[in-house]
Design a protein that fits this description.
The structure is a homotetramer.
Chain A lengths: L3 E6 L8 E6 L8 E9 L2 H6 L15 E8 L17 E5 L7 H5 L27 E3 L5 E4 L6 H20 L8 E5 L3 H12 L4 E6 L2 H10 L3 E4 L6 H11 L7 E4 L6 H8 L5 E4 L9 E3 L2 H5 L3 E4 L5 H13 L9 E5 L4 H9 L5 E4 L4
Parallel strand pairs in A: 8-9, 8-11, 9-10, 11-12, 12-14, 15-16
Antiparallel strand pairs in A: 1-2, 3-4, 3-6, 3-16, 4-5, 5-7
Helix pairs in contact in A: 3-4, 3-9, 6-7
Amino acid sequence: MAGTSKAGVFVGAGKPLEVQEFPIPEVAPGSALIKMEMAAVCGTDVHATHNPSAPHPIIFGHENIGVIADLGSELKYDVLGRPLKEGDRAIFRPAPCGRCYNCTIGNMCRVRPTYGLIPADKPPYIQGGFSQYLYLGDDPWVVRVPDEMSTERALMAVIGNHTVMNGIDKIGGISVGETVVVQGSGPIGMGALNQAKVMGAKRVIVIGAPADRLQLAEEMGADDTVSILEYETPEARIERIMELTDGNGPEVVIECSGAGSAVQEGLSMIRFGGRYLVVGQLTDYGDRPINPSLITRKAVLLSGVVGSTYKYILRSMEAMNSVVKAPVEKLITHHFPLAEINEAFESHENLEAMVAVMRPNL
Amino acid sequence: MAGTSKAGVFVGAGKPLEVQEFPIPEVAPGSALIKMEMAAVCGTDVHATHNPSAPHPIIFGHENIGVIADLGSELKYDVLGRPLKEGDRAIFRPAPCGRCYNCTIGNMCRVRPTYGLIPADKPPYIQGGFSQYLYLGDDPWVVRVPDEMSTERALMAVIGNHTVMNGIDKIGGISVGETVVVQGSGPIGMGALNQAKVMGAKRVIVIGAPADRLQLAEEMGADDTVSILEYETPEARIERIMELTDGNGPEVVIECSGAGSAVQEGLSMIRFGGRYLVVGQLTDYGDRPINPSLITRKAVLLSGVVGSTYKYILRSMEAMNSVVKAPVEKLITHHFPLAEINEAFESHENLEAMVAVMRPNL
Amino acid sequence: MAGTSKAGVFVGAGKPLEVQEFPIPEVAPGSALIKMEMAAVCGTDVHATHNPSAPHPIIFGHENIGVIADLGSELKYDVLGRPLKEGDRAIFRPAPCGRCYNCTIGNMCRVRPTYGLIPADKPPYIQGGFSQYLYLGDDPWVVRVPDEMSTERALMAVIGNHTVMNGIDKIGGISVGETVVVQGSGPIGMGALNQAKVMGAKRVIVIGAPADRLQLAEEMGADDTVSILEYETPEARIERIMELTDGNGPEVVIECSGAGSAVQEGLSMIRFGGRYLVVGQLTDYGDRPINPSLITRKAVLLSGVVGSTYKYILRSMEAMNSVVKAPVEKLITHHFPLAEINEAFESHENLEAMVAVMRPNL
Amino acid sequence: MAGTSKAGVFVGAGKPLEVQEFPIPEVAPGSALIKMEMAAVCGTDVHATHNPSAPHPIIFGHENIGVIADLGSELKYDVLGRPLKEGDRAIFRPAPCGRCYNCTIGNMCRVRPTYGLIPADKPPYIQGGFSQYLYLGDDPWVVRVPDEMSTERALMAVIGNHTVMNGIDKIGGISVGETVVVQGSGPIGMGALNQAKVMGAKRVIVIGAPADRLQLAEEMGADDTVSILEYETPEARIERIMELTDGNGPEVVIECSGAGSAVQEGLSMIRFGGRYLVVGQLTDYGDRPINPSLITRKAVLLSGVVGSTYKYILRSMEAMNSVVKAPVEKLITHHFPLAEINEAFESHENLEAMVAVMRPNL
C-alpha cells in the first residue's frame, strides 16, 4: 500500500485551499489506512479559513466515512466487538487518551485532537478527511458501518446528531408528548428535529430560512415551520410560536442557529419550567443583550454542549440506522471532487448547500 | 377565641405601612388560628412598597412561624402524620390545589396564593405573617416544629434554603468534593452556603459585601470569601476565583446577589462542564450584556428556580434540624414589634439587617 | 338531574356482582355528575372478588371515561385550563389531598381513594365506573378528552400506559436505539410496548401467550414475539432472547406478566448495566428463587412502580392522542352492558378478553 | 534501577501463597516503577485462594499505594495535570482502553485487567501490589497523593468508597436529611457509612457484628448500630429498624454484607419509594427466597454496582482528603510484611482484621 495520497490543504487564512500530495505511511499493527468515501465541509473549517491565527498546514475533514484499505494486524474488532476486515466501511475517531481529567470524569478528551484538526507538516501527514487516504494512527476508535446502511445515512449520523443527543441528555431528555422549537434550519437544526421526533415529541416547530431549507425540514418531519423572512423580528416570531402552542410556549427549545438574538428570543418563548439546549452559540461573537430574570422567573433549565463523547456517536449511528425514518440522505445536497475544494467551501458559506461533502476519490 | 388582631398593612406604594385592627374569624373544622411568633421581612415585600401597581391592602409576611392558638376539629395531623394540638409551634402554607397543570406536573401551585400575598380587604382578612394572629383557611399544609428545634432555626429553614435546595436538585445536586462559588452574601447566599456544605462540597467561596456579612459567612462555614469592595471589578473577582481554584474555576456557581453583571461573571469563572444555579435574578432589571458562547463552549448546565414545592420545605426543615450545624440563628440580626414595621423594612433596605423579623406579639 | 342510577356492585367474595339502583345526588358547586361511557374491567377488581377480606359493597371501575351530564357552577376548567361544559367527554380522578407526606414528596396520594375503590354504602354512593352515573365529589381532577380522540383511545391511555410511563422515568427513560424486552402480553405489556416504541427503542420483543395476543402485539408494533407455549422454560426463553440480541441481551426489560419466575428470568437475560422495570409483581404470591448476585454482578438498575401521579395520566393522554400511532382501539376486545357484569369479569379471568369494558348505559 | 523484587504469589487454590523473586524491568518512556507502601488484602483475593479454577500464578494486591521510584520520561502529569516526579506517592490503575463498548458508554473497561489481576508468568511480571516493586506499563492512570494526606487515608479512599460512590449515584444520590441503613460492618459498609454521612444523611444505622466492628462504626459516625448477634433474625432486625425510624423504614438501604438473606431483609424494611443499593452480593451463592412483590408494591428503586469508573476514584480521593472527617485510618487494623502474607490472608478470613494491609518493603 505504498504510494501517495492527494489532499486538500489549508495553508493559511485568506489563501485558497491547495491540493497537495503526501506519502502514504506503512500501517502499524494497531492502525489502519482508510480510503475516504465522504467528508463533510463543516462551518468550523470555513471559519478557520478566515481566522489569521488558525494553525496550518492542516488537512481538514472531521466528519468522515471511508473504507478500510489496509488493516493493521492487531486492529481486529470495532467498538461493538464486530470483526474488522479490509473493504469494510467505517467511521472512526482517535481513541480518547483515558488518562486526562476530562476522560476520567466522562467529558470529551481534549488531549488527542480528532482527525481533521491535526497538523499535516509531519508524518503521518494524512489525518484529515479531505484526502484520498487517511491514516488512523495507533489503536483508533472504529465503528463498522452496517451493510444495510447507506454511506450518506452513516455520514449524517456524525453530523450534528450526536452532539444534539449529548445535549438533549444534559437537559433531561425529551418526554413523549412535548412540544419542541428548533431555532435554525441548517444541518444541526435538522439533527435536532430528527432526534426530537424519534424521542416522542408531539410537535416540532423549526424556525429558519430560506424557503428551501424549511421545505427540507418539512420533509424531515417538522410539524410547523416559521420563516425568519416572513416573521422578521424576535417579537413577531415569539408571537407566532405562542399562537402555535396555545399561548403556552414550548417545553423544549433547541438553539442551532448561532444568531445573536437567538438566546434571548428562546428564553422569551419557552414555557415556564422549560428546558433550553444551546448548541449553536459556539462562535464567540461577543456580548448580547439577554435578560437574566427570564432564567430565574421562568425556572428555565438551560445547557450548552460542545461535541460529544463517543457514546453519542454510537447511539447516533444506531438511531440513524434503525429508528430515524426521515430521508436524511437528502440533506447532502452537494458533492465535490478534491479539485473543487474551494467551491465546496463556498457552497457552504453562501448557504447554497445544506451539507456539502468532499469525495476525495471521485 | 373571638376578638381582634393587630396587623401591619401595606396600603399602597410610597405610603408607610399601617398598623390596623381586624376581627378574628371563627375557626372552621379544617382550619386553625395561629398566634404569630416570627415573620421575616423579605426583599419581595420591600420591592412591593416601591411598586405603584402592587395590589393592596395586603398583610405581608410569607416566611412565618407561630403557635397553634385554636385548632379546628378536623385538622388532626401535620404532613408527617404527627398529631397536632394547640400550643404546638408550626410552619404552614396553603395546601396546593392539586387540580391545576403546575400541581399535576410537580411545579409549585400558582392557583392558591401563599399567606402574606392575600388581599386583606375581605374575610378572613388576617392571612399574612405581620399580624398577631393568622388564619389558615381550609385544609392547610402544616409542619409541626420539633420541640428540640429553636424558633429561629425553624424560621431560617423557610428563608432561602428550600428554594436553593430545589434549585440544586435541578442542576443535578452537588457532588462530594466539589468546589462551589456563591455570588451574594445575603440570606439566600447563606442558604446556598449552608446547603453546599452539608451536601459535601470541598470548598465554598462566598463573594459579597460588606465585611460583617462576609464574617457571618465565615462563621457559617465559608472556606473563603471575596469582598466586592476589595475586588471591585468582575475581572478582578474572576482572577481571584481562579487563584483560589488552581486555575480551574469552580464546578458549581450559585447566583444569589441579583447584581446586574453577576450572570456574565459567573459564566466566566465556572469550570468547563460546570453547573450554574441562578436564584438571585428574580427582579426584572432588563437586558444585560451576556456572552452566550460561554454557555455553549464551556458546556455549562444552568438553571433558574423560583420558589419551591413543599417537598423542599420539608427537606429544609429536616436539614436544619438535624444536619446543618452552622449557627444559623445568628443570621436573624434584627427583631421588631408591629409598631416598628416601617423601621423593619428600612433595616432590610439599607442592608443593615441580614434577616429582620417582625414579632407581632412582642 | 334527579333520579336513580343502576350500578354493578361487589357484595362480597364468592358472590356474583349485583346490579342495584342508587339515588343520584345533587351536584355541589365544585363537583360534576358523569354519565359513564366505558369503564374497564381490571385484574385488581377480579382479584378482589376472590378475596374474603375485600371490603364491600363497592361499585368497581377505576379506569373510566364518561360525559359530563351535570356540571357544578365552580368546576370551570380542566387541568390544562380548558373550559368545561356539559356534554364534554372527560377522564377524572379525585384531586390529591395536597397535605400528606406522599403528596408533598411527589408520590401518589394515598389519602383519597380513587373512584372505583370507595364504599357504596353511604352518599354519594355512585363513585365507581360500573354505574350509569358517577358522582365526582368536591374539586376533582379532570381532563377533557379532545374531540378528535376516540373514546376507546382515551380509555386506553389510562390503562397501564401511565403507570408504565411513570416506571420508565424511574429507570432513567429509554434511549433512542435501545432494545427492550417486554415480559407479558396483556394490557400492561401492550402499554409497555407502545411506550417503548414512541421513546425510540430500536427493537421491542414481547414474551407472552396465547397466539392471538402475540399477534395483537405485532399489530401494535412489536418487532419480535416469543411464545411461552413454544419456549416453555425460562432457559429456552433466555436463549431465544440472546439469539435475537446478538448475544448481548436487552438494555431494558419491562416485567408485566406477574409470573412467578419472571424476575429471575429477566435478570438472567438483561445486558450488563441494564435497566429493569418491574410493574407486574403487584400481587403478593410469596417468595421466589432469585439470585441476588445477578443484580450486583450485572450492575442492574431495577425499579418497581405502582400506580402513578397524575402527571403521567396527562402525559399518557397526550401521547395516545398525538404520538402513538398503533391501533390501540383493537385492544378493547369485549363490551358488556351492566346486566352482563359477571360475564365481563369472566372474560377477563379466562384471558378471553384483552381488555373488557363495561358500558353501563348501553 | 536494575535488580529484583520480592513478591507474594498465588500459586493455586489450596496452596499457601509463596514469596518469590522477580527481575525488575527497564522503565519504558510512558511508564513508571512504583515502590509499594501498602496494598490491602481484599475478600476477592481470599475467595480466589479457595477457587480451583482461579488462574495462577498471580501477584495479588489491587488496592495499592506506593512511591514513584523510577519515572519514564513521557509520564509527566497525573490525571489532574499535576507534575509527577520520583518520590511522589501515588495511586494508579491501568488506563482504560478507550476503544471497547464499555469504555464508550461510560462503564468500567473490561479489556485491561487492573494491577493485581495480571498473570505473573511473563514480563513485566510484577504487576500486583503484594510486591516490593510494581511496574505500571504503558501510559497508566495516576493520581498523585497530596502531601497533607496520610498514606492510610489515601489507601482507604480506594477501598470500597469509590464503588459505593458509583452506586449511590446510580440510585440518584442521597438527599440531605434522609435516613440510611447500611447492612454489613466490614470495609465496604464503613465506606457506605462515611459517604452517606458526608452527603448529608440525617441518620445512618449500621447492621452488623461483632461488637468491635460496630464500635468502629460508631467511631466513624454511625448514629445507631444493630448487632446481628443481639437481633438474630431478619424479623427482629426489621422490627428494630422500624422502631428506630418512627415506623417508616429508611429512605435508603445499602447492602454491603453479602449475607444470603440480606436483600429480602432490606426490601422488607425499606420505606415506600425507597432506594436500595446492592453492593455486597458479588459472590454467586445461588438463588435466595425473595418476594418480588416487595419491589413493585413498595415502588423500590434498586441497583447493583460492581467496581467503578475512575471518576469515582478521583472523587473518593478528594472526599477522603477534604470532606470526610472520620478517623478512617483506624480501619486499617493489621499490617504485615511479605513473609507473613499467609497470616495476612488468615486475619482477613477470620474477620480478625477490619482491613489488613501488606507492606512489602517493611
